[in-house]
Amino acid sequence: MGLQAMLERIVRSGNLTLKLPGGRELRLGDGTGPELVARITSAAWAARIAAKPGLGVGEAYMDGGLVLEQGQIAEFIDLIGANAKNKPRNKRNRLQLWLRERKVEANARRQARANVAHHYDLSNDLYRRFLDADMQYSCAYFARPDMTLEEAQLAKKRHIAAKLAIEPGMRVLDIGCGWGGMAVTLAEETGAEVDGVTLSTEQLSVAKARAEARGLSSRARFSLTDYRDVTDTYDRIVSVGMFEHVGRPNYQAYFDGVARLLKDDGVALIHAIGRPETGVTNAWVAKYIFPGGYSPALSEIMPAIERAGLMVTDLEILRLHYAETLKHWRARFAAVRPEIAELYDERFCRMWEFYLGIAEQSFRARRQFVWQVQLAKRVDAVPITRDYIHETEMALARGVKRVA
């Protein structure tokens, strides 16, 4: 299918004028929304976009093959998202899906570390510029719509802490601990002893420094360790925003590992991005942002949980919370864009603008959400009603700290 025919079939809503190489112009959409004018700079870029639009549009924007002459990139991404339902679905047979999983999502130890470094070992100065002060790089929890990003990220940590029902002195494992914010908060507010593991050298150095600065280095400890190599057992296990990097071939090993590391009366809480049905990672995101990553449908993880001998004791779906989180990140990124361009370059800024934009749009369009699944081995590991979650959150919000 040629570029013009493809676009006319897909772009049915919105107001886009697309200037093609050679001087032709296409008027696309139904005339609603902001007026956008974009230009494709060469026939080669037009061919690349037509051949692989899922990859080509993002690459063209990054590399100057697609130029916005009127309108903002956020508005252009919103137009793409609004018309995504009109895109023909590629049908892959089971063999193709199986081969893709094994090739792209295998995430053996060496590849897993390389994939993590690709995204998380970027300069910490980058992330400090658009994340909250605690450097939480995962979905916040907007208990109130007027919350600041800092308030919502703290609410997320306390929401998870409450679900874990931590008692002072308990040992907690944080799988994929990031820059240490969750581990430090749990150690400080619940009296737990927390071991955080990561594959990012940049994140590790920050996490250790933060724990030391808070006088918590004896109770919030961090190491460069693959979760598959942890050997101790724990009262509680938490993992926030890491499961997306596990890969489907490793789901059974992951949950077998959680079961192995969790004490018989223990509780685990896994927080990750999910999707409403099985699928594949966007080609552009897989190539430039999260190599080896995949956000699963719940139907893809439940069999592995059951085979591991774990029980789902609570399940919560956070729908628009990540869209609101990304909205804050995009605004903060835009506010310091000149500084980020100095750290990297213009191409990097366009890449991240596109990434943050399509991510937010995906959550708003219901193609993705966040799930929090609470796991245990014993039926009585947590109270039989959810009242304890709210009560603990309120106590933590009042500053009631539990000390070991």
Give an overview of the whole structure:
With 404 residues, this protein is of the alpha/beta class. Helices cover 46% and strands 17% of the residues. The protein is built from 17 helices and 11 strands. A 7-stranded mixed beta sheet has the order 7-6-5-8-9-11-10, with helices on both faces. A 4-stranded mixed beta sheet has the order 2-1-3-4.
Proportion of beta-strand residues? 15-25%
Residue runs with pLDDT of under 50 for 5 or more positions: none
Tell me the strand order in the biggest sheet. 7-6-5-8-9-11-10
Number of contiguous helices: 17
Query: Please, what is the average pLDDT?
Result: 91
In N-to-C order, the SSE pattern is: HEEEHHEHHHHHEHEHEEHEHHEHHHEH
Number of strands: 11
Task: Summarize the biggest pleated sheet.
Answer: 7 strands, mixed
Tell the overall outline.
elongated
Through-space gap between termini: 66 Å
Counting helices, strands and paired strands, the structural category is alpha/beta
Helix content: 40-55%
| Rg of Cα set | 22 Å
